[in-house]
Amino acid sequence: MDRLERRHDLSAWDLVPVLLATLVMVSVPARGQDAPTKIRRVDLVHMTHTDIGFTDHPAVTRELQKRYLDVAIDAVLADDHDQRGSQFCWTAEATLTVDDWWRAAGPDRREAFLKALGTGRLEIAALAMNQTPLFNAAQWEVMLRWLPETIWEQAQPQVGIQNDVNGLPRAGAVALLDRNVPFLWMGINATNGGPPLRQPSAFWWKMPDGRRLFVWLGEHYARGYYYFHPNSWRRGPVPEATDTRYRPPRPDDFFRADEASVRAAHAHLLGRLGALEAGAYDYPALILSITNEWRMDNDPPFPPLADFVATWNRLRLTPELRLTTASRALEDLRAEIGDRIPEHHGEWPDWWANGSASGPREIAASRKAKRLTAAALSPTWGSADAPTRSAADEIYRSLCLFDEHTWGAADSVGLPHAIETWGQYNEKARCAYHALGMAKLLLAGRARSAVYPGPPGLYVVNTAPAPWCGWVTMPSTCLREPAHSVVDAVTNAVTPLESIDGYAQFSRPSGPEQVTDQNRAETFADKVPGREVRFWVNTLESHAMRRYTLSAENAPEAPPAAAMPTIATDDAGWPVRAAWAGMERPLLDGQAGEVVHVALEGFAARWNASGIRRDPNRREQAMKVSAAEPAGKTAVEQNAHTTVFTQPLEHPRLLWGSRRLELFHDIPRARITVRFDRTSSQRPEWFFIGFALPCDGVAPVTACGGMPFQPPADQIPNTCGDYFGIDGWIAYPTPKGTHLWTSRDAPLVRFGEPRLQWSVARTPQATDRIYAMVFDNTWFTNFVADSHGVFEFQFDLAWSPEAEKPDRCAAWAESLASEPQVVLHPDLEPDPIYMERLHGHWRGTYPSSVKRRIYDAKHLIAGRVGPGLTDGRGR
Question: Can you give the pLDDT at residue 764?
Answer without folding.
Answer: 67
